[in-house]
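Exercise (ungraded).
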Amino acid sequence: VIVGPGDDAAVLRPTTGMDLVLTTDALIENRHFRRDWCRTRARSLELARAVGARLAAANLSDLAAMAARPRWAVISIGATGRDTEWLAEVQRGVAETLERDGAALVGGNLGRAEAGEWYSLTLAGEVEPGRAWTRGGARPGDLLAVTGFFGRAATFGRRARAYWSGRRLPEWTRAFAERWRNPPSRIAAARAMAESGAVTAAIDVSDGLAGDLAHLCEASGVGAEIDASSKPADGLEEEFPRVSDERRFGSSDDYELLLAVDPNHRAACESAAAGAGAPLAFIGRVTAEGRRMLGLRGEDGRVVALPGRGYDHFARR
Amino acid sequence: VIVGPGDDAAVLRPTTGMDLVLTTDALIENRHFRRDWCRTRARSLELARAVGARLAAANLSDLAAMAARPRWAVISIGATGRDTEWLAEVQRGVAETLERDGAALVGGNLGRAEAGEWYSLTLAGEVEPGRAWTRGGARPGDLLAVTGFFGRAATFGRRARAYWSGRRLPEWTRAFAERWRNPPSRIAAARAMAESGAVTAAIDVSDGLAGDLAHLCEASGVGAEIDASSKPADGLEEEFPRVSDERRFGSSDDYELLLAVDPNHRAACESAAAGAGAPLAFIGRVTAEGRRMLGLRGEDGRVVALPGRGYDHFARR
């Protein structure tokens, strides 16, 4: 960082020979979180920190899906009032989450929102030329793998008000809450798996498995089949039955990766992920059955249409 | 652009040896513009295009203030509905304005805003290492210069509803409206002036001359004096009396540059700006009278406090 926050723009020194990767993602009040969940000021500031952590995680997840190394971010805020303490906590949540992956918050902009605060983060990273993952490289026969597992954020979401207002909740809710407040970063795992050369396509699953699998298949011109019996491999297996199929495959905010993996390099991919401390579960395979053909294979071998669909920001609910 | 819109992030190829410059700025409905200004659909889509142009201009102005060359941008949108035609026009306004300076819109994110749409753009550019302008280099004795002139956007703002609703207005309003709809870019002039080596400090005046001059003086540890008799040099001199001192020095959205210029290199600076087609008016000088000492020098030599202050997003109006 040559010139940091406080000037018209930040000036940064890139690594020679690396490509630049840019992404942007936003969290919006009353869509991604509600301030009225909290009954105390202390709890509210914890929520602010979590909002910042999730905003950073959403952007980190995009960079992980490109196998990029995060470097610098700028934040744009639409605030509804002068709650500087809340805004400082959001930014602290962003900054400390970025820092864990070696990235820095280097600038920002503050405007006044009419209703519903919003926080938009743009994250810049670097990747070796020609080494960025895309959505378009999956081939029939590739395996499908996921880091973590999906549907927990949406499952927690139904109990978020109870959690943030401080009510007693069963233990599993707290485990899900912990993930919601601090989504694990998949950057290190992505960088390690990229070195293994095993991954043929990748996408960040921020809108739900079925929807984002469809995006990957469309970009690659392939179909896919998920095994109904596939299970998470991330230490929360016992809580798995809490997650309905609708949430497992449908809209959820889990910030995990979906990968197409060359079956000849499965072992290298698994050991790279394990070395980086990331769970990796193989959940299905890429098929040649044409675009948008997404199936769910039961233990009896029968294949039905995959339930769930991507998050539609403008659907009436 | 190695990977453009449609993947998890954009992948870009930087110029070897250049530093990276990052900025972000947002436009917010009912703050920076009102959709209900317009009475017809056609007019409304023209406004959308202008909103996009102004969003790009706000960010380009930040990069001009660093003497950087714009390259790539990502947009984050909070939309209140499914008006895809309006959103497409906003993005077209952004893209075509960026393109005129050689930059490209390479990705984005769309979320749902509760009330008041917002458009946040992050612009990345490049600058030769060690050559970025900052706010902090002004020295006593330097001259103060501005590209364009200030207060017109705010002066037009009072007539914006009449203009966009299609009412007949005096000619000067249309001249101001043209600037509002398509703020001139100062990128080429900034790059040329940077080569002249004449500029010691720079700031983008997006919040009003008095406020941003104060920022520059604070960063440089100096004072400043503006000549009350200074006039614009940009072809709209005749309309100058329409602009009150309050708007000339106070909050306005003109996206112009304020520069501190080494008096020994004034001629080089002037010819660089002229060569790039940018007006440049010398309006005062940097003083050693301590921080935040901002004066207005009358033709009789008397100095009074500079009127106007920076835009406060959270002031009650």
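Further reading is listed at the end of the chapter. For now, observe: Chain A has a mean pLDDT of 92. Chain A has nine helices and twelve strands.
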